[in-house]
Amino acid sequence: PEPVLQIEDLSISFALAGTDVDVVRDLAVSVEKGRTLAVVGESGSGKTITGRSIMRLLPPAASARGSIRVAGREILTADEKTLRRIRGADVAMVFQDSLSALSPYLSIGAQIVQAVRLHDPSVSRRTALARAVEMLDRVGIPNPADSARRYPHEFSGGMRQRAVIAMALVNRPALLIADEPTTALDVTVQAQILALLRSLQDEYGMAMLLISHDFGVVASAADDVLVLYAGREAEYGSLRDIFEHPAHPYTAGLRAATPRLDAEGERARLRAIPGVPTSLRDAGPGCSFAPRCAFAAQLGGRCETELPLPTLRGSDDAGAVHRAACHLDRLPELQEAAR
Ligand code: SF4
């Protein structure tokens, strides 16, 4: 079957002072039903703009080229009417900031009713409210019928994010884009929300694109991982390949910089990757990670002059593809190198 999300040759550029500057280049990735792809990278890596391009919610100065297909429909060339249908029925999005996703002037129940009826105006208010209450119950909000009458500010951050998830999923989208869905929450609530998303995904079979800067979140929620650096794919693979056999020095650095959630003592060794992120705008002809890469010096200038393209690093027992965009065939003992 066709993947729920299929991105091919996606590039996104911004018009800045008369010139087009690429912020995303040549992305190609797909997500199947029931799977979670995490898109991970630092701020400025292009992960959020990629998520927004799937809903075609780009700022006016930005434009996207290539192809994004959701449930078989092309997003980038769709007309407004088709887009509205896709946004309501096929794709939904959950953001970090639950307050801005909700109107302060309407009860939670009224907002979910609106979402239902926007998607299908033939549903009566009463039926829509019944579905809203059922959905609030499903996402773990206590006293759902009462809670439906409450306003966003009456909820805690965690409960509000549950309500946003209820609203996003009430029309059973084929794809959920979750952009830093737990970043604003404390660690315990984070884990609860990730577990909730996982159980809803199992129940509805939706595909999920999880956008995160946090490797710890990725480790607990993803099936597959796309690592972005300066707008390009640095590495793609199964969660296991990415964590156990990273092939790109940047991925290895991210992993080394991730505190283990289970061992408090590990936090003391938390170490950022040295250097500042490069944007595509400043990137030369070679690898944009070169100024921060501990291995660039070993490759005799090749990293600075020749762009590394994603190449196959093998596939695991289940046939999952593993690609990395690096001139090194094998990453030397990177754990040691990173310490
Ligand atoms: Fe480092 Fe060179 Fe690989 Fe880029 S291509 S990640 S600079 S070794």
TrEMBL record:
Membrane topology value: Peripheral membrane protein
SMART domains for this protein: AAA
GO-annotated biological processes: peptide transport
SUPFAM superfamilies referenced in this protein's UniProt entry, alphabetically: P-loop containing nucleoside triphosphate hydrolases
Subcellular location: Cell membrane
GO cellular component, one term: plasma membrane
Molecular function terms from GO: ATP binding; ATP hydrolysis activity
InterPro entries per UniProt: AAA+_ATPase, ABC_Ni/Peptide_Import, ABC_transporter-like_ATP-bd, ABC_transporter-like_CS, Oligopep_ABC_C, P-loop_NTPase
Record NCBIfam families: oligo_HPY
Family statement drawn from the similarity comment of this UniProt entry: Belongs to the ABC transporter superfamily.
The name this protein goes by in its record: Peptide/nickel transport system ATP-binding protein
Species the sequence originates in: Microbacterium saperdae
